[in-house]
């Protein structure tokens, strides 16, 4: 058996053991097995060698290429690198299955996909929805052209357009389902406007995972819960995480504006994903890294712009916060931490989002009565009471 086919079977069985195949959507595994990933992977992929992304060609090293395609259920295969940064990928199989399950797609429904990429996800959608039911938008003309060839060769033609996914595709509206394969900081209103009342929109929100919204009966809003936690590449031109300044660049070399003691155990900040998720919801633009040394847990915070903070474990067992820039990130994080605990330490799937034409916000526990945080562009925000 050729290596790609063998590895496809290994990956499928591993996903089965982990419970990655959604039980309510058996069609997904059937579609993946009928349309395996390697049929949609370009001949050149990229591997991170610790310093840079280096090409791996199927023609010269087919086994290494196949290992990248089927590396792990949670591993994406980088298919394009622009200025040293990944700009397109073949999404990891577990996330593709989870997002397709969240879409609740039925045969005959019209689907708009934003971000064609290799064409694999579009092909899976088309196998479920049926001929002529899937439209996909890709901003990169080279990627779009290659994706058209792949879906045609696989026998599941998809209507692929070169356009800005943030604008949707009005000419084909309305759609029953809308799905994005790249992360957005805010939901474009065009996605809601072009979806039928009761329709479903699945998309990755920022770096936090994917959300499924249902369009209201009057079409004037959409609301729904966080579904999964994988991270995605950002939409081009949105200043995504891959191209954002790191902590050192934001921190600079100047002195801190001030320092103070921290009177809490930082171990949960290092170990509890639910807390880190909650902080990134409540502290817009937050980038957070932690590490443990002989003195304890240390944390480095920044917002990708001009504000930063460090929480440093000292040899005497205390922790010191130092911060600088227009925001006081250490203060914001501690305030959000207290609020999360007061709410009962909810997990990521206890959060959701509501989108209106002129505003959108994330809520926790209950869309009507729970606390809300406005979705913005990284400016500081405090939770607002429900209205």
UniProtKB/TrEMBL annotation:
<keyword id="KW-0963">Cytoplasm</keyword>
<dbReference type="InterPro" id="IPR000682">
    <property type="entry name" value="PCMT"/>
</dbReference>
<dbReference type="GO" id="GO:0008168">
    <property type="term" value="F:methyltransferase activity"/>
</dbReference>
<dbReference type="Pfam" id="PF01135">
    <property type="entry name" value="PCMT"/>
</dbReference>
<keyword id="KW-0949">S-adenosyl-L-methionine</keyword>
<keyword id="KW-0489">Methyltransferase</keyword>
<dbReference type="InterPro" id="IPR029063">
    <property type="entry name" value="SAM-dependent_MTases_sf"/>
</dbReference>
<keyword id="KW-0808">Transferase</keyword>
<dbReference type="GO" id="GO:0032259">
    <property type="term" value="P:methylation"/>
</dbReference>
<protein>
    <recommendedName>
        <fullName>Protein-L-isoaspartate O-methyltransferase</fullName>
        <ecNumber>2.1.1.77</ecNumber>
    </recommendedName>
</protein>
<comment type="similarity">
    <text>Belongs to the methyltransferase superfamily. L-isoaspartyl/D-aspartyl protein methyltransferase family.</text>
</comment>
């Amino acid at each position: 058996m050729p290596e790609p086919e063998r590895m496809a079977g290994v990956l499928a069985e591993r996903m089965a053991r982990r419970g990655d195949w959604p039980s309510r959507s058996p069609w997904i595994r059937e579609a993946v097995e009928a349309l395996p990933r390697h049929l949609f992977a370009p001949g050149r992929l990229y591997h991170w060698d610790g310093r840079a992304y280096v090409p791996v060609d199927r023609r010269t090293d087919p086994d290494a290429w196949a290992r990248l395609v089927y590396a792990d259920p949670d591993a994406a295969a980088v298919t394009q690198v622009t200025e040293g940064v990944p700009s397109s990928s073949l999404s990891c199989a577990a996330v593709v299955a989870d997002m397709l399950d969240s879409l609740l797609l039925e045969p005959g429904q019209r689907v708009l996909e934003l971000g064609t990429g290799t064409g694999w996800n579009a092909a899976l959608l088309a196998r479920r929805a049926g001929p002529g039911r899937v439209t996909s938008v890709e901003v990169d003309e080279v990627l779009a052209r290659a994706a058209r060839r792949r879906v045609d060769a696989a026998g599941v033609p998809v209507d692929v357009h070169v356009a800005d996914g943030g604008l949707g595709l009005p000419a084909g509206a309305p759609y029953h389902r809308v799905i994005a394969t790249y992360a957005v900081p805010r939901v474009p209103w065009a996605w809601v406007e072009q979806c039928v009342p009761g329709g479903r929109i699945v998309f990755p929100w920022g770096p936090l995972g994917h959300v499924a919204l249902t369009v209201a009966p009057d079409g004037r809003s959409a609301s729904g819960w966080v579904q999964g936690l994988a991270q995605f590449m950002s939409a081009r031109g949105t200043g995504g995480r891959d191209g954002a300044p790191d902590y050192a660049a934001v921190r600079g070399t100047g002195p801190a504006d001030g320092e103070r003691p921290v009177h809490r155990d930082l171990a949960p900040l290092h170990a509890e994903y639910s807390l880190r998720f909650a902080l990134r919801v409540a502290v817009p633009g937050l980038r957070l890294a932690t590490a443990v040394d002989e003195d304890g847990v240390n944390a480095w915070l920044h917002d990708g712009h001009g504000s930063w903070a460090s929480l440093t474990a000292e040899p005497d067992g205390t922790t010191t916060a130092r911060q600088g820039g227009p925001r006081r990130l250490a203060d914001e994080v501690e305030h959000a931490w207290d609020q999360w605990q007061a709410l009962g330490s909810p997990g990521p799937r206890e959060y959701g989002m509501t989108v209106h034409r002129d505003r959108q916000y994330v809520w926790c526990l209950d869309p009507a009565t729970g606390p809300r945080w406005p979705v913005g562009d990284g400016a500081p925000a405090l939770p607002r009471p429900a209205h």
